[in-house]
Amino acid sequence: MKILQLVDTLYPGGAERMAVNLANYLKEKEVNNLLVVSRSSGKLADFVKNPDQVKLLHKRSTLDLKAFLKLFRLVNQFQPNVIHAHGTSIYWAVAIRFFKPSLRLIWHDHLGISQEVITNNPRHELKVLSPWIDFIITANANTESYWIQSKIKKSSQIRYIGNFPLLDAVSSTFVEPFTFLHLANFRSEKGQKYLIEAAKVLESRGLDFKVRLVGQAVDPSWKNECMELVSNQGLSNLVSVEDANPDVSKLMGQVHAGLVVSDREGLPVALLEYGLAGLPVISSKVGQCEDVLGNGKYGELIDPGNILQLTNAMEYLINHPMEGKRKGESFQQHVYETYGPKHFFKAYSEILKINFHLNLFEN
Question: Where is the Glycosyl transferase family domain (predicted)?
Answer without folding.
Answer: 175-321
